[in-house]
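SEQUENCE-TO-STRUCTURE ENTRY
===========================
Question of interest: how does this chain fold, as expressed in backbone structure tokens?
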Amino acid sequence: MTARKPSGQPTLFGRGLTAKRVKSPSTFSQALSSRRAPRPASETTGVEKKRLWLSATAIENMKRCPRCFWLEKHEGIRQPEGIVSRLANRFDVVIKRYFDLYRPNGELPPMIVGKVEGKLQHPFQEKYWYNVNERYGYYGKLDECLVTSAGAYTPVDHKTASSDPNLRELIPAYQFQLDSYAFLLEQNGRPTTGIGHLIYFFPGHGDKLHEGFPMEVSVKTLKTNHASVMPQIAKAIAILEGPPPKPNPECSFCQYVETIKKF
């Protein structure tokens, strides 16, 4: 749910206003012309190579454009983020603090009572990690987690929306996000219920806004498939172990770079 903060890392079009110098900076064209893949473990100089961590967000970036994904992980060259609203960040903090009020007593917040099964995990573990191999890992950061009386875990993600989410189609990335959380829970010895919840918060209508702004809450329950995650991780690793891949023809960033090469 949390919007990404502007990064100081280099982008396709240069650095941000708060950019910090990174080791051996590369430009988009330099990275592509090098056509190099990561050195095999046998070529390392005796110093253990730092593990590269992937996430659901990284996998979605890979699906959108393999070349941009490769450049970000190898060269630190990110797609420009543009203007990012901080409203979602604030909602995230407020909602989590509200849920924390009910956690110690084993109660559910009134806004979701009857809509979900289980209790809020207590104490709550936000981050989970999984070592794929000696060079790659996978991690995720949950917004919330429910635990049933049988000891099964249900991942929860908070979402803000401008209107009722039931009136539009589910964004596919949200499904994979819950699948990833279920995968990480399973890999950390926490059996899952086979479902995950998306809790949407969106503004409602009211005639007395001066008495408080109405906020609607809608819970969408999805079936999770944690087995679908490992094949995507393997695909990402295969891309990173090879040379820079061809861009996605629909990637607007790569289209821009190819266009300016003509001038």
